[in-house]
Amino acid sequence: MNWWRHSNQLEEAVYADMLIHVVDASSEESEEQVKVVNSILESLGAASKPVIMALNKMDMVKDSLRLAIPNPRGRIFEISAATGQGIDEMLEGIREMLPEDEKEVRLFIPYSDGWVISYIYQNGKVLEQIHGESGTEVKALIKKRKMEPVKGYIIISSQLE
Known about the structure:
The protein has a 3-stranded parallel beta sheet with strand order 1-2-3, with helices on both faces. It contains 4 helices and 6 strands. Helix 2 (30-44) links the parallel strand 1 (19-24) and strand 2. By secondary structure, it is α/β, with parallel strands linked by helices. The N and C termini lie far apart (70 Å). GO terms for molecular function: GTP binding; ribosome binding. InterPro entries: G_HFLX_dom (IPR030394), GTPase_HflX (IPR016496), P-loop_NTPase (IPR027417). It comes from Acetivibrio straminisolvens JCM 21531.
């Protein structure tokens, strides 16, 4: 196979936020193909992009012949487009890697609900934190899909003034 001719197809990777590299796991040349694609991506300046590697046709691979292909820039999913095996897990992995919309909010958290601050640190970015007599006021960026548990704590103006 002429690998050099595929480098033109990979040039668009430079503009992507994330790459999905589908590998024919049933091919005897799959490990070499991965090396070539990685080399081309490196030469194009796209080697730092996060990559989901989908090892396709796993329904045709015997357990004893499973591939040991590393993917230091992301996760590896064993899938079968024919049977649907692993597709849901791969889609969830893609969702986790996509950049998310965030919303800046101001919240007042009573000291009795300290779990909310931990939740914000896990699911957003704290921009400002002020401790008051009855609780903590937090200005934060929170992922929109993670907003539901903290909606009741959102305030319009400061509670500490």
